């Protein structure tokens, strides 16, 4: 027997007027039972919302009422009944039950509250993520994340990008950093990839022309912050016959498209989170790295140490500059362009006439960095030189460098952190809120 008999509709699919008087079957979790003496309500919850099942003591069969009074919160139940339009009920209807079956009992006490009445610590919530995700605010975040990822796929497909999947087990570090997780690979040491960068570039030589990947990146960063994970999701693109300007134009258009899609498709989830999204305006403002330095040094007195060319823009400066831009322009998204070549990875393309700066950018949100990108070096010898200047050994990059010797088009690309995108869009306090099962310094389970 198919389990289709267990459900004819989701809660959100029932139309109070059109379906009034219809018999339907809903399945879901017992959100709560309210016994008011003469009348008892069972609130059934599924991914799309809630339905109120109404049992009037004088009218309903005694065993139905008995089942409802005995069932524990968060048990899974199936209810068949008649739809009755009721303006005061969630979604505008109630269900007058003919049968109620308990499919799976929930033990009590529950590991955490799901009604939102008791505030649980983030750690408790993540320890019990399956239960935490039953709360409508948490469901809403991932409904929106789903829409964001679909929007990205649609946008990039429309722009002739091909979705790719590259290996996460690698022999060498992408950027020669120390932030790598070593793993044992038979009798050798291997690493979890920190970025698909080198693969994406190799695919430019392969002639795939425009590729993207939405996949995990692994960073063994020790720090415990609100915006870093040890396993994050990167939205990575690479495109041929493009420079950093072309890549930035694609990126800002993609961000606007994502926001538009979320506004169009996710109103119920946005309402649950009490968020109204402001769609960023095109084109995003651009500040050169040197302009940022000048503004920080002259117009932001909170930063006491003067910054010098070549310094990274630290968390505090990043934050204060984001506020400065927002106060000036009313916009949350902007670019910082033309970074010192030394602050960027070896594959960033230096300007011909000023090699100390590179055709690179960070795309910023008021709160933090969302993306880094650049035009890449496509000339083999220059690339080898840059690898050596970074103190790395080119022989470790043979598999990559080879692809620059047999026809490599000019190209550029970027990586956007999916969790940071969601976090900034929904103004979440902690990046872990945007991941189903986050991995951080302390957390390896669930
Ligand atoms: P940051 O300086 O903020 O740590 P990064 O410059 O090291 O980031 P990139 O290597 O430029 O990061 O990666 C591209 C994007 O991937 C970042 O802009 C960010 O959105 C995301 N990202 C990188 N590392 C992490 C991480 N540890 N946790 C979450 N997102 C990350
Ligand atoms: Mn970066």
TrEMBL record:
One GO process term, biological-process aspect: aspartyl-tRNA aminoacylation
- Keyword Magnesium belongs to the record: yes
User: Its GO CC terms?
Assistant: aminoacyl-tRNA synthetase multienzyme complex; cytosol
Which organism is this entry from? Methanimicrococcus hongohii
InterPro entries of this UniProt entry?
Aa-tRNA-synt_II, aa-tRNA-synth_II, aa-tRNA-synth_II/BPL/LPL, Asp-tRNA_synthase_2, Asp/Asn-tRNA-synth_IIb, NA-bd_OB-fold, NA-bd_OB_tRNA
* PROSITE patterns per the UniProt record, alphabetical: AA_TRNA_LIGASE_II (PS50862)
The answer on whether this UniProt entry bears the keyword RNA-binding reads no
Q: Which residues bind ATP?
A: 219-221, 227-229, 369, 417-420
This protein's cofactor list reads: Mg(2+)
| Family membership noted in the UniProt record | Belongs to the class-II aminoacyl-tRNA synthetase family. Type 2 subfamily.
Broad class of the protein's primary localization: cytoplasm
SUPFAM superfamilies per the UniProt record, alphabetical: Class II aaRS and biotin synthetases, Nucleic acid-binding proteins
Q: Which reaction does it catalyse?
A: tRNA(Asx) + L-aspartate + ATP = L-aspartyl-tRNA(Asx) + AMP + diphosphate
Q: Where does Mg(2+) 2 bind?
A: 369, 372
Question: What does the record note on quaternary structure?
Answer: Homodimer.
Give binding positions for Mg(2+) 3: 369
| Protein name, per record | Aspartate--tRNA(Asp/Asn) ligase
Q: Which UniProt keywords apply?
A: Aminoacyl-tRNA synthetase, ATP-binding, Cytoplasm, Ligase, Magnesium, Metal-binding, Nucleotide-binding, Protein biosynthesis
The catalytic activity of this protein is classed by the Enzyme Commission as 6.1.1.23
């Amino acid at each position: 027997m198919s389990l289709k008999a267990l459900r004819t509709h989701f809660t959100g699919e029932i139309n109070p007027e059109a379906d009034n008087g219809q018999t339907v079957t809903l399945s879901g979790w017992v959100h709560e039972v309210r016994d008011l003496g003469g009348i008892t309500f069972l609130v059934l919850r599924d991914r799309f919302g809630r339905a109120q099942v109404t049992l009037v003591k004088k009218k309903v069969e005694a065993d139905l009422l008995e089942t409802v009074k005995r069932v524990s919160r968060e048990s899974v139940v199936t209810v068949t009944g008649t739809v009755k339009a009721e303006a005061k009920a969630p979604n505008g209807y109630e269900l007058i039950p003919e049968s109620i079956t308990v499919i799976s009992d929930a033990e009590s006490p529950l590991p955490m509250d799901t009604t939102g009445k008791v505030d649980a610590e983030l750690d408790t919530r993540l320890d019990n993520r399956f239960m935490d995700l039953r709360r409508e605010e948490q469901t809403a975040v991932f409904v929106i994340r789903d829409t964001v990822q679909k929007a990205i796929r649609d946008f990039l497909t429309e722009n002739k990008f091909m979705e790719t999947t590259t290996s996460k087990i690698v022999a060498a570090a992408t950027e020669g950093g120390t932030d790598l997780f070593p793993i044992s690979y038979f009798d050798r040491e291997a690493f979890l990839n920190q970025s698909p960068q080198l693969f994406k570039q190799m695919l430019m030589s392969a002639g795939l022309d425009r590729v993207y990947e939405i996949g995990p990146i692994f960073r063994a960063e020790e720090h415990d912050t609100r915006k870093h994970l040890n396993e994050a999701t990167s939205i990575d693109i690479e495109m041929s016959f493009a420079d950093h300007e072309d890549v930035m134009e694609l990126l800002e258009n993609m961000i606007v498209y994502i926001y538009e899609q979320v506004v169009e498709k996710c109103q119920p989830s946005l309402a649950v989170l009490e968020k109204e999204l402001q769609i960023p305006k095109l084109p995003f403002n651009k500040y050169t790295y040197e302009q940022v330095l000048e503004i920080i040094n002259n117009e932001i007195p909170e930063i006491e140490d003067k910054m010098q060319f070549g310094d990274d823009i630290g968390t505090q400066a990043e934050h204060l500059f984001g506020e400065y831009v927002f106060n000036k322009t009313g916009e949350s998204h902007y670019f910082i362009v033309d970074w010192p070549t030394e602050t960027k990875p070896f594959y960033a393309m230096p300007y011909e006439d000023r090699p100390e700066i590179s055709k690179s950018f960070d795309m910023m949100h008021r709160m933090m960095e969302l993306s880094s990108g650049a035009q890449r070096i496509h000339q083999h010898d220059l690339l080898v030189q840059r690898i050596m200047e970074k103190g790395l050994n080119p022989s470790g990059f043979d598999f990559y460098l080879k692809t620059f010797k047999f026809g490599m088009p000019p190209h550029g690309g970027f990586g956007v952190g999916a969790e940071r995108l969601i976090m900034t869009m929904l103004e979440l306090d902690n990046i872990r809120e945007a991941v189903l099962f986050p991995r951080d310094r302390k957390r390896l389970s669930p």
